[in-house]
Amino acid sequence: MSGADGLPRRTPRGADTLEPPRPLPPSLAGNPALPYPAIGQELAELRVQIPGVDGCVLGGVDGLLITHNIQTDADPHDLAALAATTYGLGRQIGFRLGQGDFQQSTIRNAGGYLSVYAVSGHALLAVIGQDSINVARLHLRAPATTERLADLLDGVTPTTH
């Protein structure tokens, strides 16, 4: 199909091929029932285990910050929002390609990395790394951390904002 200018155009699909929007789950941000010391320990251990990690952010899929241990001047609230944006994009890609739910995404920039991992249906782990980070080692260690974080978050009732 071509447009009036002769350039090829994509044929629109019917609205029934789009996944209906799912509401975001209630937020975990600011929930006093969360085991913050145990969560902080998990984030610290990941940072210590992987040289080149500048910090971790635990955020909700809604983009709100739960907690962090960032060692740079990066804004943890911005990173929680960027993690949620990455999650949303990855979720749509998974749906469109028939590959299932979002698991992980890594973005490499000139000076470092941002990796986002699914923790649960409510939370995401974002890891900020220097350019020297061993990304393969991070990808080997992060899933165990996300499982332990999911266990810590399990049973905590999300709050509504």
Entry keywords:
alpha+beta, 5 strands, five-stranded antiparallel sheet, single chain, globular, 3 helices, 34% helix
Describe the structure.
The chain has 161 residues and is α+β, with helices and mostly antiparallel strands. The protein contains 3 helices and 5 strands; from the N terminus they run αββαβββα. It has helices spanning 36-49, 76-96, 135-153, and strands spanning 53-60, 65-68, 104-109, 112-118, 123-130. The protein has a 5-stranded antiparallel sheet with strand order 2-1-5-4-3, with helices on both faces. A hairpin with a 4-residue loop joins strand 1 and strand 2 (65-68). Helix 1 packs antiparallel against helix 3 (135-153). The protein is globular. The N and C termini lie far apart (46 Å). The model has no long low-confidence stretch (mean pLDDT 87).
Give the strand content: 15-25%
- The strand order across the widest sheet is 2-1-5-4-3
Mean pLDDT, as a whole number? Answer: 87
Helix content: 25-40%
Number of helices: 3
Low-confidence blocks of residues:
none
Lay out the secondary structure:
Blueprint: H1 36-49, E1 53-60, E2 65-68, H2 76-96, E3 104-109, E4 112-118, E5 123-130, H3 135-153
Antiparallel strand pairs: 1-2, 1-5, 3-4, 4-5
